[in-house]
Amino acid sequence: MKDSLPSQKDTLYAQAHEAVGAFQFDESVVAVFPDMIQRSVPGYQTILTGIGELTETYAQPNSQLYDLGCSLGAATLTMRRKLTQPNCKIIAVDNSEAMVQRAGEYLHAYHSDVAVELLCADINAVAIENASVVVINFTLQFIDPDAREALLSKIFQGLKPGGILILSEKIHFEDATLQSAIEHLHLQFKRANGYSELEISQKRSSLENVLISDTADFHINRLKNIGFESAGIWFQAYNFASLIAIKAK
Ligand code: GEK
Questions:
Q1: Which helix (DSSP H) or strand (DSSP E) does residue 83 occupy?
Q2: Bridge partners of 93?
Q3: pLDDT-based confidence at residue 12 (cuts at 50, 70, 90)
Q4: Whose CA is nearest to atom 9 of ligand 1?
Q5: Residue 1: what pLDDT?
Q6: Whose CA is nearest to atom 17 of ligand 1?
Q7: What's the mean pLDDT in 178-204?
Q8: What pLDDT, in 10s, does the model give residues 97-136?
Q9: Residues near 92 by beta carbon (within 8 Å), at least 6 away in sequence
C-alpha cells in the first residue's frame, strides 16, 4: 500500500478572495487535504513513519490506541499497519463530518484484522481509557488554549503505565530573531512546493486565531507538570515538532 492518501491538488487559495474567512475543515478542504498537508508541513511523512514505529514499540496487548483529530486517518492507517499486539482497538476521532466520512472510505479500502472505531466527536468530550498509545498529530493547535491542559491531563489519566502520547504541533519561538529565521525557512518550503505569494498570504489570514501555537518549552513543561515522567522532542523540521511523553511504568 502507498504511504500517502490520494488527493486533488490544493488550489483553495490560488484565486484572490474578497474576504478570507476563518479556516474550516469542510468538504473543499477534504478533497485536497493530503496534498495540502504534504506541501505545508515539513517532515509530515517522516512523522507518520515515526508514529508507526512508536506504535509497534509501545502498543500493549488488550489496550486501546487513539488518533485524536484524525482527519483522513493517515496516522490511524500507519498505526494499524504496525500494530502486532493482540486484542487492541484503534479509536480515531474528528469533529469534521466531511473528514470522518472520507476517512471511513480510506480505512475500508484496505483489509486489516485490527479493529478501528471512527467517531465524529469533539476530542475534548471523548473518554480516554485503557490506552497504550495516544496520537494527536497537528490538532492540539486548533483547541482552545484554555482547554489544552485538561485534554492532556485526561489523556495522561487514560494511559496505562508505560503508555505513550505522541504530540505533533506547529511551534513558535520566544526569540524574535530565531522566529523570523525559522519562519523564513518554512515560507521557502511552501514556495518550493509551488504555493504562490497570494496562496501563502490568504492561507495565513485564514489560520489567524484558528491555529494558535505554543513554544516547545511550554509543551514540555506542561506535559511534565501533568505527570509524564519523560517528555521531549523526537523530531523537528523548522517550526514543526513532534514530541513524545511517556507515563512511568
Ligand atoms: C493527520 N492528524 O493527517 N475535536 C476533534 N477534531 C478536531 C477538533 C476537535 N475539537 N478541532 C479540530 N479538529 C491528521 C491531521 S489536521 C491538521 C490533523 C491540519 C480536527 C479537524 O477537523 C482536522 O481534521 C484536524 O483536527 C486537524 O495526521 O490541518 O493542520
A1: none
A2: 68, 119
A3: confident
A4: 122
A5: 42
A6: 138
A7: 91
A8: 999 999 999 999 988 999 999 999 999 999 999 999 999 9
A9: 66, 67, 70, 73, 76, 103, 107, 116, 117, 118, 119
Going by alpha carbons, the residue nearest to atom 30 of ligand 1 is 138
- Choose one of 5, 46, 139 to mutate for the ligand 1 pocket test, by most ligand atoms within 8 angstroms of C-beta: 139
User: Which residue among 48, 142, 213 is best mutated to probe the pocket of ligand 1, counting the most ligand atoms within 8 A of its Cβ?
Assistant: 142
For the structural domain made of 44-172+211-246, what CATH number should be given? 3.40.50.150
CA 199, distance to chain mean position in Å, is 22
The answer to pTM > 0.90 is yes
| pLDDT at residue 208 in the model | 86
The structural domains of the chain, with segments of one domain joined by +, span 44-172+211-246
In angstroms, rounded to a whole number, what is the distance separating the alpha carbons of residues 168 and 245?
A: 11
**Ligand 1 mean position to 28 CA, how many Å?**
15
Nearest residue (CA) to ligand 1, atom 3: 74
- Rounded-to-integer distance, Cα 45 and Cα 47, Å: 5
Distance 106 CA to ligand 1 centre (A): 16
